[in-house]
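stage 2 :: seqdesign
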C-alpha cells in the first residue's frame, strides 16, 4: 500500500512549532502537522471561575476554546456566531483539549488564576484536535515558565508533557498520523492522547461503518506510542527555544520534564 503523500506507515507528517505567534498571549505557538496548522495561545487571567469561588475550590483552572476559521477548509466554514451557538463538534473537541491538559497540570500549584487556551485552526488537513492538544501543551508550558520567571508561582505546575496523535486503518493497513484524504477513507480512526511517559490520557476510536480486531487496535496503539515519543522530543525543544525561556531557566525547565 502507498499512502497519498508517500509517507511510511509509521511516519509522522513534518511537525513544526513557531512560538510567540500571538504576542499579547502569555504563551503561544503555531503548530503545524503537515498542512494542518493551528494557533495555540495561552492567556493567564488572575482570577478563577465563579463556580470555584462559590464551592470554595482551591487552586486554579484551565479551560480551552477551539475554533475552525472560515477559510481553514476547502469550502468556507460558517462562523459559529452566525448560527448563535457552538456546533457540537467544536464543543466536543474543546472539552477534550481542556480535560487532556488539566490531566498534566497541577492546578493547586497554579494558584488562584485561570489559563485560557485558545486553539484557532488556520488550515485543516486532518488531526486538528490532536494538533491542538500538542500545540496547546507547548503554549501552556511557555506561559507557565513566564509566570515562574516573574515569581508568580513557586514551582512549575506542568507535571509532564502531553501530546495527541491519530492512527487508523487505511486500506486494511495500520497507519500513523492521518491526513484528510486518509481520514476521509479510513475504515478505523483513533485519536490518542498520551503523556511523554506513554501513559494514556484519552482514547477516541471507532470503526467507520466497519469493525476492527484486537490485533489491529494493538497495532494502532503501538504506532501512537512511537508518534508521541517523537512529538514530545520536538515539544521539549520548542519550549526551550521559545523567546520567553531565558538561558538561566533552561536547566530547571528541562529537569521538570524528566519527572518519573
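stage 2 :: out
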Amino acid at each position: 500500500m502507498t499512502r497519498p503523500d508517500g509517507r511510511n506507515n509509521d511516519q509522522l507528517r513534518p511537525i513544526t512549532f513557531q512560538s510567540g505567534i500571538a504576542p499579547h498571549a502569555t504563551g503561544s505557538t503555531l503548530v503545524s502537522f503537515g498542512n494542518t496548522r493551528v494557533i495555540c495561545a495561552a492567556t493567564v487571567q488572575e482570577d478563577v471561575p465563579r463556580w470555584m469561588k462559590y464551592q470554595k475550590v482551591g487552586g486554579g483552572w484551565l479551560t480551552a476554546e477551539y475554533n475552525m476559521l472560515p477559510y481553514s477548509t476547502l469550502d468556507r466554514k460558517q462562523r459559529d456566531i452566525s448560527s448563535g451557538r457552538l456546533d457540537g463538534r467544536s464543543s466536543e473537541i474543546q472539552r477534550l483539549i481542556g480535560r487532556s491538559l488539566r490531566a498534566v497540570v497541577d492546578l493547586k500549584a497554579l494558584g488562584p488564576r485561570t489559563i485560557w487556551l485558545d486553539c484557532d485552526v488556520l488550515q485543516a488537513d486532518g488531526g486538528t484536535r490532536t494538533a491542538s492538544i500538542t500545540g496547546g501543551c507547548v503554549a501552556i508550558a511557555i506561559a507557565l515558565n513566564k509566570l515562574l520567571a516573574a515569581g508568580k508561582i513557586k514551582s512549575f505546575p506542568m507535571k509532564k508533557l502531553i501530546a495527541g496523535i491519530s492512527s487508523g486503518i487505511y486500506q486494511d493497513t495500520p497507519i500513523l498520523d492521518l491526513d484528510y484524504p486518509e481520514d476521509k477513507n479510513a475504515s478505523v480512526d483513533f485519536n490518542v492522547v498520551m503523556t511523554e511517559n506513554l501513559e494514556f490520557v484519552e482514547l477516541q476510536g471507532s470503526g467507520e461503518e466497519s469493525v476492527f480486531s484486537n490485533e489491529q487496535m494493538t497495532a494502532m496503539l503501538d504506532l501512537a506510542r512511537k508518534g508521541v515519543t517523537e512529538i514530545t522530543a520536538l515539544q521539549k525543544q520548542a519550549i526551550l527555544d521559545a523567546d520567553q525561556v531565558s538561558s538561566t531557566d533552561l536547566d530547571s525547565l528541562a529537569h521538570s520534564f524528566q519527572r518519573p
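stage 3 :: structure notes
- Residues 15-247 form a domain with the Ribosomal Protein S5; domain 2 fold (CATH 3.30.230.70).
- The beta strands are 15-19, 27-33, 36-45, 61-68, 114-123, 162-170, 173-176, 188-195, 200-207.
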